[in-house]
Design brief:
With 198 residues, the chain is of the alpha/beta class. It contains six helices and ten strands.
Length: 198
């Protein structure tokens, strides 16, 4: 990573997370929702005695997840990148989730009775082929617990921290940051809303 503080965040799921690093040292982490991400970023900076100008890089979750929430996160990254002149790296939300526990299989709720899994692809939970004892984590694992357990998976309790795409894990997986405008969302499928629809 470049000099200065590193801000990491992921807004792709129903719970957004953000974290602030000084090198490899975690200064703070917050759990929020996408639409108030900037308030939590401001709080992280204040708690660390820092200001936006102290940021040197960003790491951003690129999805898959909620189309709208993913777009919010990438728009924030592009806006901060433009305003502060700092680079950003993108990390798959599925990869960050899976990094929470050794051997974990990330399952993100895709709505429409589907989940996003590695590939990335959107599939019906019943169509997953899992080894017995596979550890499934993420909001999709929580929502489809009974189906996944019937398929032989192990799903931690609903309140287990492993189900959150912790921004601190994104930093561990990030490549060298570059132009924030080059960040590409991972949508997997087209949005529900159609242009010109009333």
């Amino acid at each position: 990573m470049t000099g200065g503080l590193t801000l990491a965040f992921d807004t792709a799921t129903d719970v957004a997370t953000c974290a602030l690093f000084d090198g490899a040292s975690l200064l703070g982490e917050r759990t929020t929702i996408a639409r108030i991400l900037l308030d939590d970023v401001d709080a992280l900076l204040r708690e660390a005695g820092a200001e936006p100008a102290d940021l040197g890089a960003m790491v951003v979750g690129t999805g898959p997840g909620s189309f709208t929430s993913t777009r919010i996160g990438l728009a924030v990254a592009r806006g901060l990148g433009l305003g502060l002149g700092i680079p950003a790296a993108g990390v798959s939300t599925l990869d960050a989730l899976a990094a929470a526990r050794p051997g974990a299989f990330a399952v993100v709720d895709a709505r429409r009775r589907e989940v996003f899994v590695r590939g990335p692809v959107a599939v019906a939970p019943d169509d997953l082929v899992l080894e017995p004892g596979t550890l499934c984590i993420g909001n999709g694992a929580v929502r489809y617990r009974s189906t996944l357990e019937r398929l032989g998976a192990v799903v931690p309790p609903d309140d287990d921290e492993a189900h959150l795409p912790h921004a601190r894990l994104h930093v561990l997986l990030a490549a060298e940051p570059g132009d924030p405008d080059a960040l590409a969302p991972v949508y997997v499928r087209p949005p529900d809303a159609k242009a010109g629809a009333a």
